[in-house]
Structures are given as structure tokens and as C-alpha cells.
């Protein structure tokens, strides 16, 4: 469990979720600290996406509960929640014939009444966010013409237009080349809001996240600052494979390598 004392962005209390009688997440307890970049790591099928769906309210718990900013998730009126919590899923279904500007404008919907048109203040917000994500010159471009990395940034930009206090990201670096992955992770870290993201590349997670949640087979193995939970014991348990953890020679972050099955005893 995290030892941070600041008000958590999420309080997860004995959360379980399943489908057709099958338990997918079991008895998860975690206080997720605010204004930190929290990474969810674990092998395929561990429950990372399912957990994010429970945090976003897309899935209702079978038992237990999730509070967001001190209020049960289910008690948040939809628009009020959308003003504070934004979600970027892995397979965001988006009409590729839209322009970047049209996509971003959908982030304003939680703030609008029916038929209320966008004003200059809204346009200025879109401009500011486009500058922030480095897409100002692509404002009128159709989404179909963007590279994978640009599209991912546009989707996150749409979420930022919602001006959320917390951003949930499901594998934000998926399908991106190494250069884009690095750029995106650096950029997410600089956002300064609460971010909870599932991250497949655990060395990226160790380098950029503040806190980690380690999931395995629907259970939370460990939760805390990277320096405390990114350990040989936790990672070997997580992946059922011998590992080695070092300090990266250039970045000075923790860095894991899988070892051959023959365990090395020199660390
Ligand atoms: N709606 C559902 N109905 C039945 N089973 C589901 C459902 N959603 C997820 N699962 C199962 O729950 C398990 C966890 O899935 P989940 O997508 O949360 O894992 P993950 O850690 O995000 O995996 P990956 O790293 O492969 O994306 C998987 O075995 C998956 O098949």
C-alpha cells in the first residue's frame, strides 16, 4: 500500500469484478495518490485494463467500491465526473474523417448545454492544448492523415480539453515507436495532474512513473513508490521468471532485465 498522506485521487476498497461467475479482479485495496504518475504493470491478462475500467466507472464493481475525489464513483453526476476525470482507452473509436479541431471540441461537451456553441474562450483553450501537445500546425488536418503518435497525442489532447484533475490512460504508448514512446512518457510526466496508466514496458514505467501498482492474475501484488516496489522479489513473483534489477547507467533509474532460467546470484 502507498504511504502517501495527501488526499488520494482514488480510494479502492476491496474491489472485485468478474463476468459470468468468473473472478477477474479480486479484493483490490489501494489508495492512489493525487498529482502523481501511477503506472499499472503486470503480465498479459493480469487485469490492468479491467482495473482501469473500474476506475473510470465503465465497469461497476461486483463487490467493494471505488471513490474518486472522496465521493463514490457511482454518485458523480455524469457531466461533473467528465469535467474531472478523462479516459483514453486503447481502442478509442473515433471517426477518422474528423479534423483534429473537431476531435478536441468533443472534450468541451461536459461543459456545454444542448445547442450551446463554442465561444472565443473555447477556441483559446483548444489553441493552448494544441500548443501543449505540439499539434498546433495540424489543427485542421483529418485524423486519418496523422501518424500513430500524432493521433495518440490528439486523443490525449481531447482528454486534456476536458480540463480533468485525473487522466486514465490504457497503454498510451501502444503501437508507437521507441522515439514516440519516450516523447509521450516525458510529456505525460510533465502534465502535473494525477495520471493512472497501464504501461507494458516496465522499464519505461520504472523510469517515468512515481508509483506502481503490480497486478498478477487479478490480484494486486504490491503498490507504492517505484523505489520501494520495483524489487527483484516483487518482479520475479510478478513474471514467474528470474530477473535482475540495476540502476540504468545513463538515466539513473531502476532497470530490470530478465535472466536466463539459471539464476545469477551476483546481485
Ligand atoms: N468482459 C469480460 N468478460 C470476460 N472476461 C474478461 C472481460 N474483460 C476481461 N476479461 C478477462 O480478464 C482477464 C484480464 O483482462 P485485462 O484486459 O484486464 O488484462 P490486461 O492486464 O489489461 O491484459 P493485456 O496486458 O493483455 O492488455 C483476461 O483473462 C481477460 O480475458
TrEMBL record:
UniProt keyword annotation of tRNA-binding present: no
Stored PROSITE patterns: ABC_TRANSPORTER_1 (PS00211), ABC_TRANSPORTER_2 (PS50893)
Q: Where is the ABC transporter domain?
A: 10-242
Classification via InterPro entries: AAA+_ATPase (IPR003593), ABC_transporter-like_ATP-bd (IPR003439), ABC_transporter-like_CS (IPR017871), P-loop_NTPase (IPR027417)
Query: Per UniProt, which keywords does this protein have?
Result: ATP-binding, Nucleotide-binding, Transport
Q: Which Pfam families does the UniProt record give?
A: ABC_tran
Q: What GO annotations for molecular function exist for this entry? A: ATP binding; ATP hydrolysis activity
Superkingdom as given in the UniProt entry: Bacteria
Q: Which CDD domains match?
A: ABC_Iron-Siderophores_B12_Hemin
Give a yes or no for keyword ATP-binding in this entry.
yes
Q: Which PANTHER family match?
A: ABC TRANSPORTER ATP-BINDING PROTEIN, HEMIN IMPORT ATP-BINDING PROTEIN HMUV
The UniProt similarity line reads:
Belongs to the ABC transporter superfamily.
Q: Which protein is depicted? A: ABC transporter ATP-binding protein
Naturally occurring in which organism (per UniProt): Neiella litorisoli
